[in-house]
Amino acid sequence: MAQEKTYIEDIERTLYDIKNVDKSKYKSQSGLTEDIIRDISARKNDPDWMLEFRLKSLEVYNQLSLPNWGPDLSELNMDEIVTYVQPDAKMTGSWDEVPEDIKETFDRLGIPEAEQTSLAGVGAQYDSEVVYHSIQEDLVKQGVIYTDMETALHEHEEIVRDHFMKLVPPKDHKFAALHGAVWSGGSFVYVPEGVHVEIPLQSYFRLNAAGAGQFEHTLIIVEKNASLHFIEGCSAPKYNVTNLHAGCVELFVNDGARLRYSTIENWSRNMMNLNTKRAVVGKDGVIEWVSGSFGSHVSMLYPCSVLKGENAKCEFTGVTFASKGQNLDTGASVIHCAPHTSANISTRTISKAGGKATYRSAVKVTKNAPYAKCSVNCESLMLDDISRSDTLPTMDIEGDEADIGHEATIGRISDEAIFYLMSRGVSEDEARSMIVRGFVEPIAKELPLEYAVEMNNLVNIELEGTMG
Amino acid sequence: MEKLLNIKNLQVTVADKEAEDTSKEILKGIDLQVNKGEIHVVLGPNGSGKSTLMNAIMGHPKYEIAGGSLEFEGEDLTELKTFERARKGIFLSFQTPEEIPGITVENMIRTAKQAVTGENIKVVKFRKELKAAMKELQMDESYAQRYMNVGFSGGEKKRNEILQMLMLQPKLALLDETDSGLDVDAIQIVSNGVKKFHNEDNACLIITHNTRILKQLNVDKVHVLMQGKIVAEGGPELIEKIDKEGFGFLQGAE
């Protein structure tokens, strides 16, 4: 019988790869020195405490070494990374005021369109600064704040000061320290007690400049019994020099509150994506993570949920797709700190064409968390013999009466399943496609609509017939 | 009568590269003709080649046709891929149906129906038909939205096979031990399903160990397969004889 190999297409990247001429207004020198930090801080008109915070973070950065586990980061040379690129645009609430080339970029990504049809507010960051921000009037009336971090730092200084990098302190790891030193841009969301934001807010991060870093900070506070769905997307065109993304996300979910945080990362294949995300959840609160990692050359991303209040819950749903030249090390961690806290982690990883996908999870149940419940389910699908998938779960249980379950499978598309589908009249390539689509279905149905479409592109399958 | 399936001197070997002896012949020259409107039964001890026969008709890549001919409605099947055979109107009810996570029963059957008919299947009408067929098989409606066979009991999986058969309306249904592992009630339901499916324009080829499923069906012909060969053929009376005496009396026929 003729051997056939199935070729599963990469995500169509043309759209993301269109680059604009670098028309930045200002670029810091490459590398990381105190002078550069002082320069960035002065340009951003930071309050004194923030300059101090940055300088302290730089000190910590210099003291810490690279992580001794996970993907190889040796190709990252901070001396070559430009940490601050100011676009030639002021933050505005009107797309008409956004410079044409930048506006076109976001048009192509469908941001203004989504804003009109399915979002209650939008933020758009280009390189190091946010260039556009909007929020529906009725949300403003209810006291909801959604703005860029710089504006928040000046207009809501107290709140920012009380929360900024309190959940992810700079000494956490080297890239958290780096973030503390050079952070720029990002989103600030504040939802007052009892307010339900029914329609999602979305921020989009675009890195256009070659050899640059993006270090946006996202700070979301959902007060008691309030709720929010926040979506983040990010992309960049491909360059042949290394770009760096070291963002930081801090989510404060107070008692009885609910936050759904969806993010789709589709960086180009020259990106080192070293992102830190953490949520703290109060009594009866719920954090829901939906996380898609499709792009980047190297990723290290393990969103962490600290379940601090009794009965706090975490739902984590993630999908990672690693293709040629990609080493995506993703996962989730949960820390149970109170009685009856529960977490449900469900992930799918696909690897093909020599890509490497690693799932890493850490579940910790402290002694203050009796009756904690945690279920971890991770499934990996390898589409050929040269790709790799690994699963590395760790558990540290101190609490009594904990109910912890872990299930992991690593597999390939089974020939018997293909035969079964073909016996129903489905062609071989469609059968493979169905199996891959079915594999990611539990995740795809959680994604925001426009990203679910992207996900479908992912399993666009072509059959290449070769005589073998 | 119109000939549907025409098998002549069929020899089948295992094409599995991992198998130690790739030249191992499992079917050693089978002759079998099935006409429209007929129900045929293949009996035989374990390992006699019954499932191989079904899989070879359906085109499982693990098996290779080493000789003889295999025709469906006068057309050579051997060069056709499995899905092409399905589109010609052949259906296999699996002994061990596969689980396909993420694909609902409804989506699976609708996709299959579109594939075999080549037509765009309208959702509303399709749902109505599916619901009716499920009722027939005493399947809870909620199963339409469950993933294919995932978490189904053995009996539920078999019912799901019959459901697909009823919905796809093949010309030739191959039933590979569809009754195995079922309790008496379930056998009754499956048997009713087959009875409902069967008419003058189609045919069934049934493999079974359990003759109970055959009680309500008008079996036309019985073939006894042993060690890759058909050693006896006859009418329904052969079923009763084997039921009582086992295959022992046929040993000499080899």
Please explain how this structure is put together.
- The complex is a heterodimer of chains A (about 475) and B (about 250).
- Chain A is α/β, with parallel strands linked by helices and about 475 residues long.
- Chain A has one domain.
- In chain A, about 25% of the residues lie in helices and about 35% in strands.
- Chain A is built from twelve helices and 26 strands.
- Chain A has helices at about 15, 35-45, 50-65, 100-110, 110-120, 135-140, 150-155, 155-165, 175-180, 415-420, 430-445, 450-460, and strands at about 5-10, 25, 85, 120-125, 130-135, 145-150, 185-190, 200-205, 215, 215-220, 225-235, 245, 250-255, 260-265, 270-280, 285-295, 300, 305, 315-320, 325-335, 340-350, 355-365, 375-380, 390-395, 405-410, 460-465.
- In chain A, the strands form four sheets. In chain A, strands 6, 7, 9, 10, 12, 13, 15, 17, 18, 20, 22 and 24 form a twelve-stranded mixed β-sheet that branches. Chain A has a ten-stranded mixed β-sheet with strand order 5-4-8-11-14-16-19-21-23-25.
- In chain A, helix 2 packs antiparallel against helix 3 and helix 10 (about 415-420) crosses helix 11.
- Chain B has a single domain (about 5-255), classed as P-loop containing nucleotide triphosphate hydrolases (Rossmann fold, 3-Layer(aba) Sandwich).
- Chain B contains seven helices and twelve strands.
- Chain B starts with a strand and ends in a 9-residue tail after the last helix.
